[in-house]
Structure to design on (778 residues):
């Protein structure tokens, strides 16, 4: 059993979305296919995944560094001990041959796309959904109850716009979401506070509205927002400062009694270790948002979870960045705190397949094999393009 | 005045070098050319640089993300205030448009190649060597005395080899070096200690031999080596552990009274800030080795130096990784503690041009304009290939 070919496609995100820091209209994502020599109904079984959303496709690193290492490795070194599955750990380790330590940036999402495709491939070989396959592989109980999901968005609307932030969130509520996240930092503090008050009118329970500063605040702004936001029953205050500025985060955390969330821009276990050691975060309160698809895949993410657990964080405090099918399966398998969704945006990758059920703020993966990316209509053409013989 | 074209070439390192962690025979470097519309003697003035050594060429990131942003920017936004030079700062900032914070890995060396080529271009426009141009731009006195340089190498030789480590270092001494660095961690501790003793026989003064573990040790190994190395008058003990494991570094530093060196695998000012805050390093003693060519270029490196200074480190404690012409000019311009050289290896990029003078352990840049890469015979064909009309 071997991998015969690794294919990739850089896919542009659709639409004109932007947050306080970046314009996503130029963003791309790497869709990757691991083609195996195992055939079913005349077709090779192919593992498919992508490197989450928000940090660009990695065609260069994948083509120049990762593919030659994996296709150049001895077949059996990429298999599980019983030789019945591929080993995502061994595939990730092989992809990293001759790479120096440190510098966990673009490389981490290039490796992630391939490592996650190995999980999809294994789940397809086993004929089961990825959430069930991951749970079984890790000796965890088969999950049944779906997972909490919140709708992220909360964009800025021009003053004369007919649509308001409240309309947007009420629309999410109609879709079945009962927890939300909105942007802050794109307007002066007093307008942002009015927006938070407006958004709270869409909520039915306390601690169901989060705010996200996308890592843009200076020390002064972060602390001003912290003091002002403290009056509201917020779910969390996200990325108040540079994601690597642990000392500043610790200062902000000391001045803010509610939950803080961060981690989507940390891509390794050692960075997570530094965050939990030096960032002043509080076990049993704050939220960790590392995203396997940007961080070398599920193998490294499991190390991050171990680091988090040793620092006093429970799985329910881990809520990955990246609202898409891959993270839905991972969150469900591991019993983490929840998933995000960006209804309608970050297409073709964002969101879930129509066969996934959204009910009372919980989302349930379908019973498609693997991550079920094939069920997502927006991805269909790209997957066809990648898997055509 | 504008940049008309940005060209790049991925160049393989020659030879079969490997350290305790990586095999460099598969390594590549991005050689980059910024072509201007300023003509001299019928030829466009072209800035040339590369992204140091050891972390791979970045053709994908440069082509897909950086070049379109820079060539798409309004001409005047890339110029200095007086419009007589290009602005390396503005070019680096433009290259980073729509990039999220954090994740300072491969992207950092892609941006560096372009930012450094802008310095080469500016020095050529001014008709002066890069060291003089950088010093003048930063309002520093024109440097005259060259800069200390040490020979790095100290490889492992088979027991029956006719050449020994001592021969290697004595050969460096004959070339004009009086300070050396050798590898450790590729053999058991007792053999490594014998190697250190042998190497010390090539030195004529204390504190002229450094040892490099390339970030590979576990806690136990790092501390064992630290205790055992303490008996020797070493210049420094380099990268004992994972370059991002600040807590472990602090522990190792507490147990080792001599100088520790690290930083070559940190690629941003915020990572440097974390190192100086949490790594237990001692101002006025330990050595910082961040490398501008891997870390967004000289603009970010100046921020790193500021962070280091605020943490109590003097310029003489900053000795960048990467023994090549670009760092020679930067170290000379800024009056830093020294340069490294890997005599004969990491070609075609490693080492200096024949016109650079090596004397009593100091190296003097030539008076070629820019970084003088055109004077390096090993680079000639590649530069010709890149600059042909």
């Amino acid at each position: 059993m071997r991998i015969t070919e690794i294919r990739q496609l850089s896919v542009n995100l659709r639409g004109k979305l932007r947050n306080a820091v970046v314009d996503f209209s130029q963003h791309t994502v790497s869709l990757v296919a691991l083609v195996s020599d195992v055939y079913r109904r005349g077709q090779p079984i192919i593992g498919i995944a992508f490197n989450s959303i928000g940090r660009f496709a990695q065609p260069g690193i994948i083509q120049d560094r990762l593919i030659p290492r994996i296709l150049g490795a001895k077949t059996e070194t990429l298999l599980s001990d019983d030789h019945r599955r591929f080993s995502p750990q061994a595939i990730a380790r092989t992809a990293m041959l001759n790479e120096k330590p440190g510098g966990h940036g673009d490389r981490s999402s290039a490796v992630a796309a391939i490592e996650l495709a190995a999980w999809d491939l294994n789940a397809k070989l086993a004929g089961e959904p990825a959430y069930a396959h991951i749970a079984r592989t890790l000796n965890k109980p088969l999950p049944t109850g779906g997972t909490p999901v919140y709708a992220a968005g909360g964009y800025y609307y021009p003053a004369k716009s007919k649509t308001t932030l409240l309309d947007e969130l009420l629309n999410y509520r109609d879709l079945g979401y009962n927890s939300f996240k909105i942007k802050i930092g794109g307007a002066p503090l007093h307008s942002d506070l009015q927006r938070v008050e407006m958004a709270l009118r869409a909520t039915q329970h306390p601690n169901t509205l989060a705010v996200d500063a996308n890592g843009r605040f200076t020390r002064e702004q972060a602390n001003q927002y912290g003091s002002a936001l403290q009056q509201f029953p917020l779910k969390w205050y996200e990325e108040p400062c540079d994601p690597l500025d642990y000392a500043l985060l610790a200062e902000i955390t000391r001045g803010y009694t509610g939950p803080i969330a961060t981690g989507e821009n940390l891509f390794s276990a050692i960075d997570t270790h530094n965050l939990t050691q030096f960032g002043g975060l509080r076990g049993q309160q704050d939220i960790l948002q590392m995203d396997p698809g940007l961080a070398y895949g599920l193998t490294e993410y499991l190390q991050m979870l171990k680091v988090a657990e040793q620092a006093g964080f429970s799985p329910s405090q881990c809520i990955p960045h990246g609202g898409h099918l891959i993270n839905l399966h991972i969150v469900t398998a591991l019993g983490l705190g929840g998933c995000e969704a960006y209804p309608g945006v970050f297409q073709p990758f964002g969101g879930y397949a129509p066969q996934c059920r959204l009910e009372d703020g919980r989302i349930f993966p379908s019973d498609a094999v693997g991550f079920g990316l094939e069920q997502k209509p927006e991805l269909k053409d790209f997957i066809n393009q990648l898997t055509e013989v």
The longest strand of chain A covers residues 28-40. The two ends of chain A are 19 Å apart (CA to CA). The mean pLDDT of chain A is 95. Chain A touches chain B through 49 residues (CB under 8 Å).
